[in-house]
Amino acid sequence: MREHGRSALTAARASRRAALQGGGGTPLRAQGSAVKKRALPLGRVYRLLEPGPVVLVTTAHGGRTNVMTMSWLTMMDFEPPLVGCVMSDRNFSFELLRRSRQCVINVPSAELAAAVAGCSNCSGRRVDKFARFGLTVAPASRAVAPLIGDCFANLECRVVDSRWAKRYCFFVLEVVKASVDPAVAAARALHHRGRGEFMVAGRTIKLPSRMK
């Protein structure tokens, strides 16, 4: 009985330890334990809330074409799909989008990480980014901007609301055509963490959902 009691106690302790492990094996703090936090500079708050995934947005107007890296975008409605995005008015793409009112959101996988980072570190006013980073250009059917064939998904969009563009650099886009590579079942998308750091989408977990 004594040995049996020890075995049960050991098993219980092991169960508690397992319950306090996160998905990546990182121990979690026990409920109610005091946590001493340090102040976070407000300029770094975005690193906690970066929505992702990182995309490559193509724009075109007046014979000029550009591609820029973007991670500040959010879904706003299901159908038709509406996407909100923030694009700095200092970017060349801002002017092209404002004038053409069309763009393509191209979703790259982690294999394009070098090109994604490269496109964010130079200006399309002076550089042909498509040529410099070896991006495959293909014509879109519902937008004047080109598709990037190397990306596993392409979303052709039109601007439906730009009232906040002047104040917040915020555009609302409607996706008018979407295409995806059928060979890509679970793409390893990139997620920006700020200051040149990216995370790669990991494993998928299935949880109960009312959506059928």
Structure summarized in a few sentences:
It is built from 6 helices and 11 strands. It is of the alpha+beta class. It has a single domain (45-200), classed as Pnp Oxidase, Chain A (Roll).
List the helices and strands and how they pair.
Blueprint: H1 2-19, H2 46-49, E1 55-61, E2 64-70, E3 73-77, E4 82-86, H3 92-100, E5 102-107, H4 113-120, H5 129-132, E6 137-138, E7 147-148, E8 153-161, H6 165-168, E9 170-180, E10 190-194, E11 197-200
CATH arch. level architecture:
Roll
Strand content: 25-35%
Secondary-structure element pattern, one letter each: HHEEEEHEHHEEEHEEE
Q: Tally of extended strands?
A: 11
Q: CATH class, anyone?
A: Mainly Beta
Q: Which strand order spans the largest sheet, edge to edge or round the barrel?
A: 2-1-5-8-9-4-3
User: Quaternary state, please?
Assistant: single chain
Low-confidence runs: 1-6, 18-23
The CATH homologous superfamily is called Electron Transport, Fmn-binding Protein, Chain A
- CATH fold category name: Pnp Oxidase, Chain A
Number of helices: 6
Helix proportion range: 10-25%
Largest beta-sheet characterization: 7 strands, antiparallel
